[in-house]
Amino acid sequence: MDRDWMRKQLEAFDDLASRYERSTRPSDYIGDPSLYDQLHRAEPTVKQILCRLDPKLTEDLNIDQLAGTAMARNEIQRGLGILADMDEWASRLAPDAPALPADRLHPWVWDAARTFWESQHYRASVHAAASAINAHLQQKVGRRDVADDKLVQEVFSDRPPEAGKARLRIPGDPNTPTVQSRQRGALQLGLGCFFAIRNPAAHETVEWTEQEALEQLAALSVFARLVDGSRVEK
Question: Can you tell me whether residue 169 is helix, strand or coil?
Fold first, then answer.
């Protein structure tokens, strides 16, 4: 919503109604006809604005009824009050919810993303974080011949290691369902991170929102912790 425009429209209507009331003759309750015409022209827009703020504010807004301008001005003031405080409501009355501090994400992720994030290049920050994970993963298993999703497929494969092809294993007893599940999950999460996060971040041109980018950094952080905590099997 264009709140500045909304506020100006309401204030202009309030001023117009006030001027009309001052021009009204006590004998017949009729004011300046030109001001009355202007009120009629402005009334539909004002009603639309008030309806967006609170539909109840338009219930009694009718300048043709007795004391109509006075009643309209009351609703206008309520609308202006909503516009003035709605940001405060959003912050002060929001339900308590956990926060996600970006600097608590895995260091591979946040250290790579920070510079772009601070300059509000959110898509680039995600791309940098994904590239950093790839670099750390390559270093951990000693590979430079393969990268990104193909590297994830190889290192988290359930096949035994081969010459020059180390594997990553989730810590714990590999015969337990939990470890087996985490091993498969690390593979699938890694593929998802590169297919659904890294590739769009690298190839899209539209900037991402801060919230969208933060959620994607969080997903990358989960995968980074799995990689960082896995043991190398050669």
Answer: strand
Rounded distance, CA 11 to CA 46, Å?
A: 10
Residue 155 main-chain phi, psi, to 5 deg:
-75, -30
Q: What is the pLDDT of residues 179-222, one digit of tens each?
A: 999 999 999 999 999 999 999 999 999 999 999 999 999 999 99
Q: Are the beta carbons of 148 and 157 closer than 8 angstroms?
A: no
Closest listed residue to residue 218, CA positions, set 57, 53, 69, 99: 99
Residue 161's contacts (CB-CB under 8 Å, 6 or more residues apart) are 167, 233, 234
pTM for this one?
0.63
Cα separations (Å) of 67 from 24, 29, 78, 184, 196? 11, 9, 17, 73, 61
The CA distance from 148 to 190, in Å, is 9
Among the listed ranges 30-34, 39-43, 100-104, 230-234, which one has the minimum average pLDDT value? 30-34
Place of tokens 């009603």: 47
Contact between 122 and 207 under an 8 Å Cβ cutoff? The reply is yes
Residue 62: other Cβ atoms inside 10 A: 14
